Amino acid sequence: LFLGSATTAFAQKKLRPADYNAVINEAYNRFKDEKEGKNADYIPFLAKVDPGMYGIVLVTKDGQVYQVGETKFEFGIESIEKVFTLCMAMELFGDQAILDKIGADQTGLPFNSVPAIEIDGKKPSNPLVNAGAMATTSLLTSHFGHEAAWEKVDDYFAGFAGRRLKIIDELYKSEAATNEHNQAIAMLLKSYGYMYDDPLFACDFYTRQCSYGVNAHDLALMAGTLANGGVNPVTKERLIQEKYVPKVLAIMGTTGLYETTGQWMYKVGLPSKSGVGGGIISVMPGRFAIAVFSPPLDKAGNSVRAQEAIKFISDKLNANVY
Ligand code: DON
């Protein structure tokens, strides 16, 4: 009955900068020798990133930033981009359109599953799996037109990160040369009426979005914007209406770590999103966001160390949203 009292007392007193620093440093040291996991190997560029790199950034709702480890190295944003593409589409078309045209249900299957599309009534399932992300991207590219779309998306992502992001060209080329599986998914969705622009254009655009280079600090600000009700906690720019933020977080909480999201929410209780580049973002609404970078992944495609570090920090700061 009283087991939780120590952490609760810690979280209830006003946290000082020293507390945040102590917690992230402890998380860093505790897991830095972790040997489990393996870099993504189906995208050649990701396979050769140094697996020893590890960084943690925590940003509070009021824009205080705490960091430890490798927080400047730019790695592939990969699937984490899906969250911000979703934000943009929700801003433009509203939350009902996301439900009708994409979906909001967990597949229980890997992020690039073809059977998931068939099982879910030929729908893309949700915006955070490859099928749903490409369909969401196709809403944007058809809305803005092929010429203008990149600049619009680029501006929007820059708002979240607080600086303009660049594509890692080598990553884009490496992924574009090996993404036949995603092309097939895009074509399949087209055949079922759930692709809203030219499927191969949308697939290529999505691949480019996945190739954004971000560091852990960028990701923390991006996630921090969601922790702060849609306003970037550092630049104070509003990126998404407050009423949409819980919808985005709900989808992250349902499917952000793919088929292991249920276990993640059971153990940690923070809406999160992973990418095969080794990043994970987690949002404690109204308090703070955490971004962790460490390339070695588990079988589902989620960074091993990032999961360990975020669970540790969340427990210490009593952040479980439930
Ligand atoms: O489409 C892909 O396969 C990659 N660009 C992104 C996948 C990804 O990050 C899934 N993450 N855990």
Morphology: globular
Oligomer: single chain
Could you say which structural class the secondary elements and strand pairing correspond to? alpha+beta
CATH homologous superfamily classification: DD-peptidase/beta-lactamase superfamily
User: Radius of gyration from the CA trace?
Assistant: 18 Å
CATH topology assignment:
Beta-lactamase
Gap from first CA to last CA: 17 Å
Binned, the helix content reads: 40-55%
Question: Which ranges are low-confidence, i.e. pLDDT below 50, for 5 or more consecutive residues?
Answer: none
Tell me the total number of β-strands. 8
Q: What's the overall average pLDDT, rounded?
A: 95
Strand content: 5-15%
Name the hetero compounds present: 6-diazenyl-5-OXO-L-norleucine
Quickly name the level 1 CATH class.
Alpha Beta
Please provide the ordered H/E string of secondary-structure elements. HHHEEEHHHHHEHHHEHHHEEEH
Keywords: Acetylation, Hydrolase, Signal
Enzyme class: hydrolase
Protein name: Glutaminase
Catalytic activity: L-glutamine + H2O = L-glutamate + NH4(+)
